[in-house]
Amino acid sequence: MALNTSPKTTIKTDITLNTFLFHETHLKKTHSMRLYGGMLLIFLLSLACSPQTSQLHLLPQPQQITINQKSAHKLINGQINPALISEKLVAEISEAKVNPDEAYRLKITADSVLIEATTEKGLFWAHQTLAQIVESSDGKSVPTLEITDYPAFRIRGYMHDVGRSFISVEELKKHIRLLSKYKINVFHWHLTENQGWRLQSKRYPQLTDSINFTRLPGKYYTIEDAHEISAYCKAHNMLLIPEVDMPGHSAAFVRAMGVDMQSAKGMEILKNLMDEVCTEVFPDEPYIHIGTDEVEFTNPAFVPEMVEFIRSKGKKVISWNPGWNYKPGEIDMTQLWSYRGKAQPGIPAIDSRFHYTNHFDAFADIIALYNSRVLNANIGSNDIAGGIIAIWNDRLLPDEKQIILQNYFYPTMLAFGERAWLGGGSEYFDKNGTDLPTDENDPVFKDFADFEIRMLWHKNHTFAGEPFAYVRQTNVRWRITDAFPNDGDLLKSFPPETEIAETYRYNDSTYASRDAVGAGIYLRHVWGKLVPTFYADRNPIIPLTPILMFIHPKNKP
User: Fold this and answer.
1) How far is CA 189 from CA 9, 70, 135, in A?
2) Per residue in 327-383, pLDDT tens?
3) pTM confidence score
4) Which residues, in sequence order, are CB contacts of 433 under 8 Å at separation 6+?
5) Cβ–Cβ < 8 Å for 120, 103
6) Exposure check for the chain: N or C terminus, fewer CB within 10 A?
7) Is 116 helix (H, G, I), strand (E, B) or coil?
């Protein structure tokens, strides 16, 4: 391949173990940066563009859409006349293969708008679609069309770890409001952690005493706050799943109560707490999440007793997997948090295995997430419920804006929202992984590029002014060589730094190069070989230097 290499940036990166150092040098007219570490994250935030977009910017894309280009529905002051909109609850949407309770049909003719659904949930989603159609119009008219739509998976959610951090009620409400526009339907609220117990208890007020926090003392949610969030979720068609982690991740409980959760006294206190949580704090929520991950079980009766107790309060129970080992009927749903977690027949499963944003790169991992099937299934079932994106705030950030920005919250949720609604996908983090195909005619490339265009439109409209860590990357191209042996000399130079070629000879060996696309290129993922990256197999101990040549989008081959 002939390359137009002006302007060009050459980046030389050394793969070593447990090092992450930067060194800059200049080689003639090229700028060379040596980056040492297990992964390469290249952020090209200056490359934002305004790509041409189609007339509609629907996100997620509907399952079926037919547009009549020959007629239009005129708008009045940029809006549809409410008198022309009619709603109808029907017995069924026959095209809905799964989750008919969220299905809808939307018909826009020249003089009417008809919304049909089997439940109020479906009506709500139809109105979100209709709003997107109007918002992306020219303000004068919208096309006449028919949409038949339903979600592939019934759980399409996100989790905020507010035990390690804290996010204000108003910020949480904003997330609920914005994400419900994109048919995200679950907010998993991780309320307790080692660092702090963030939920008020009137029975045990010492739990939220500042002295019992190791991070952000005194930052917690009152019972009134919990009621407000609950009501806001209901108003936005979102299921709230509160989590009280037990018996692990409970150092805050131990500090406040002076006992271990698995002790007889600890279980007595915890049952009183869960009675309060189930009947006074979250009386209307159908599920309670009890954690059970990353802990040594010293009391074999603990989990069965707590599940039975919470169920006796009219709640269904969710538990992390790996965690306690359940048989069908012993738990209502499990949430898979590790690659070791396995979905079990007879127990509905939520996929969170590769869905941790605190491990993500803003650009590379969103590709893997968008392309990957939920729980490696094309469509949901009784046993395959869906997925949840998890924000684990292991590192303390200065404010909630940084939490949203540095966890790439909004772009990640839009990518996952479309995948979980549409279903399908090209892999399960096991084929291309974080890499895009370099062939722009490849269906996987084209699908992601189309999603990117629509997402950037929403970034500039719905999310204007919000921390939205994403710019266009499908126009960013690289040429990356095989890794050269540097024998531990981090300043050693190699042939690609002085010439561009398909292959190179060095020390009587041949080294090839190949293309990559995207603003963030992993040479090796933080999850090791679990997620494929540019180099399929690389020993992290051997010092090696690959050379990366950035080809400016305007000068791509």
Assistant:
1) 44, 47, 31
2) 999 999 999 998 888 999 999 999 999 999 988 999 999 999 999 999 999 999 999
3) 0.89
4) 368, 427, 522, 525, 531, 532, 533
5) no
6) N
7) strand
